[in-house]
Each structure stands twice: as C-alpha cells, then as structure tokens.
Amino acid sequence: MKRFACKTCGNEVYFDNQACLSCGNGLAYDPNAFDMVSLAGPTPPLVCANAGAAGCNWIVTDPAPETFCTACRHNRTVPDISSEENRELWAAIELAKRQLFYSLMRWNLPMPTKEEDPANGLAFDFLADTVKEDGTTEPVMTGHAEGLITLNIAEGDDAEREQRRTSMGEPYRTLVGHMRHEVGHYYWDRLVRDSDRIDEFRALFGDEREDYGAALKRHYESGPPADWMQAHVSTYATAHAWEDWAETWAHWIHMIDGLETAWSYGITCDPRAGGTMTFGNMFQFDPYAAPGAQEVVDAWVPLTIAINSVNRSLGQPDLYPFVLSTPVMEKLGFIHSLIAAYRG
Asked: Considering the entire predicted model, what is its pTM?
C-alpha cells in the first residue's frame, strides 16, 4: 500500500480516512489516480453512496447516473443496515474489499460487474446467518461460485474471526486474506481454466479435476500431510488444486502489497545475519511491476525476518509464520507470469 498525504496540510493520512485528523479537511480516495483527493473547493468530487452506511471513502469515477464507486458497484447483496451491528461488520468487510480492489486495479486485472458481463463478471454477497423457526441457525458459508463471492458478515467481528481461526487451525485468518483468497478462485477461471497453460498449472498445483467435495472431506477428516510445508504455503492449500492456487494467489498479493508498504516507507534490511535495517531505497522496482518473482522473494524474505524479530521482542507471535519452499516459489512465479502477461 502506498503512503498518502492530506492535500491541504501535508499531514500523513491513511487509506480509509474520510478526513484529515490534523486540519479536518474532508478527503476521499480516487481509485483511478491511486491517491487521496480533497473534498474542498467549488466542484468537489462525488463520494460513493456507501460513504455513510459502510464508511466507503472512494469517489465515483464513472459518469452519472452511477452513484457507487468502482468497488461498491460489485456488491450484489449487502446486510440489513437497520442493525447497528450489521453496519459495523459491513464497514469492516468493505474496507478489506477496497484493499483487494486496490491491488486488482494496480495490476489492471479484469473485473467487470455482473451487469457488464453476466457470464464472467465479479460480484459479492455479504450475508448473515439466519435463525429458522425451529430455533436452529442456518449458517452462511464463505466461498466462490462462477464469479460470485459470498462472505459471512460475522467474519467482520474480530472476536468471532479469532474463534474461527483457532478452531480451524488457521494462523493467518483475516478479512483481507478472505477477499484475496476468494478472488483467486475467480481469476483461476479467468486466467487459467481455458488457457494454454492449464497443463503447466496441473504440474505445479495438481489436477483440479479431482472430486472437490471428496477432497475437502478427506482434508477435514485426516488433516494435511505431515510434510505439507515442503510444497504448500498453508495447510488448507493441501486440500485440492483449486485451494492451493487460491492460497498461493492470496499469498502473492500479501507479499506484493506488504513490500509496497515497506518500499513507500523506505524500509530495507540487510539479508545477512548481523546486517542492519536502514531507511532508503529498498529495491529498484515497484513491487506491483516486479520484473520477476525471484526479485520479490529476495526483497521479501529479509523483511519478514526483521518483522518477526520485532514481534518476538514484544512478546508477540511471528507476524509472518510461513516458509517459502522451492515448489511454493515456483507457484508464485507462475502467478506472477500470468499477471505480467495479462498486463502486457
């Protein structure tokens, strides 16, 4: 993520700010310029219609009568906002979705709405569990199907998400992680499924034609293989080729966006033991336009070692509890090459 500054006073502001905390000037994010803009002046930009209900701070870049921003136009179903709890959960989810769209737009990946492209469009349903007449609860399952991403709004609650993270043994269960994972399924359909690289995909990730339901049943009953770290980025990635792809896709976005944040703050660290963390030019490329996956890994690994060491010094668990094995790096390289080829 880039750094942002108030256009009036120059104070540092953040991606979700609707106003500068220093001078009070109203702010909004322009997704086409990847920058904050001021809401002051004789002709201020139009802010997304979800600004009040969901805290969206993006401007509308499409011509009238469009009233929603690029990210919110993809919503098919939103929660009942008569509930204050629902509004808070939805706002948290929308922020994670805007972080996702930041990355998709930085890469200029295809993301038509279902209205623009019914067959290949991208849409979101944000739903709550329902209590049936007999008192039982019908849960909403997070997932993807034919371009429609469904997310249980309970994931917007930190305590609920932590409980699920612990019960499911997931060390990195976050809202933005959910968004990046589920949209990975969408881009498998768009970039891999009907491409001439499907055999290469199968050689790296496995054969997606394996029965998906049976594979998940096996995973939840038996767990991952003992040596899962040798070829996968997470335990869930071992369940099926599609999940391996989605987990690796999400991880690639984690790495790229994390590196851009470090890059924008001028943070670098010497990969050698005994080296130093300094502030300066970390590497000679924009992570979103990285020349290759290896360059990203070479910049990423020493940064994560430094971050984990800081966390340990504060008595916290590692922020980045992952191992990038050679097979995982080959998968990351495959994803990088697909994105680079699409961008041209």
From this structure: 0.91
